[in-house]
Write a structure and sequence with these properties.
Layout (H helix, E strand, L loop, with lengths): L3 E6 L3 H4 L9 H6 L2 H14 L4 E6 L13 H8 L23 E5 L10 H7 L4 E7 L1 H14 L3 E10 L3 H11 L4 E3 L6
Helix pairs in contact: 6-7
Length: 189
């Protein structure tokens, strides 16, 4: 059996909480019980003794790492969103986190870009990634595609992902099924 890790992407307040500054996925997350599904996946990963890697996007107070020309991140700077060490970049209060979870901070959409994620995975001899996150059509997609190209086996757990709307979510999962296994939460057993 391949050594597996869970990678959970961007379950931070500014993105998933209804009061978040750029919470375009908050309604989808609430309607589809995504946080409860995420906690179910995290519990499963812990039971299996898989490393739980929680990834968050954020920038320092000066937004030094923020590409202002980016339509996505330039807007975050204008709104003072995704600022590290603030409520906005804390994990959602209902997310069950533990001190032993590995936390990775990223400054772009893709969790591999300019982060320590690859080093953590290689150090732990990980071959298979369970990927969950927000948004399906952004962070999940870019991270899954990059993981695939780095020769990881990728499984995306659909019910533990969210997007701005069901159309984007479903269309992205359909595309990703060409490079990853897409399953529902209940299929983890």
């Amino acid at each position: 059996m391949k050594k597996t890790a869970l990678v959970a992407l961007d379950f931070i307040n500014d993105i998933v909480h209804p009061k978040g500054k750029i919470a375009g996925s908050a309604e989808f997350i609430k309607q589809h019980n995504v946080i409860a599904n995420v906690n179910q996946v995290i519990a499963y990963a812990r039971q299996q003794q898989f490393p739980c890697i929680l990834v968050k996007v954020g920038f320092n107070q000066q937004y030094a790492e923020c590409p202002e020309q980016s339509p996505l991140f330039g807007r975050a700077k204008q709104m003072q969103a995704l600022q590290l060490n603030t409520w906005g970049t804390e994990f959602h209060e209902d997310l069950v986190t533990r001190p032993e979870d590995i936390v990775i901070t990223k400054h772009r959409v893709n969790a591999f870009y300019a982060t320590g994620l690859e080093a953590v995975l290689r150090a732990n001899k990980i071959e298979h990634l369970l990927i969950i996150g927000v948004s399906t059509d952004m962070a999940v997609q870019t991270t899954a595609r990059d993981a695939h190209d780095r020769d990881y086996q990728v499984t995306i757990i659909s019910k533990a992902c969210g997007a701005a709307n069901s159309e984007n979510h479903e269309a992205t999962l359909k595309l990703l099924s060409r490079i990853a296994t897409v399953i529902a939460t209940k299929e983890l057993q």
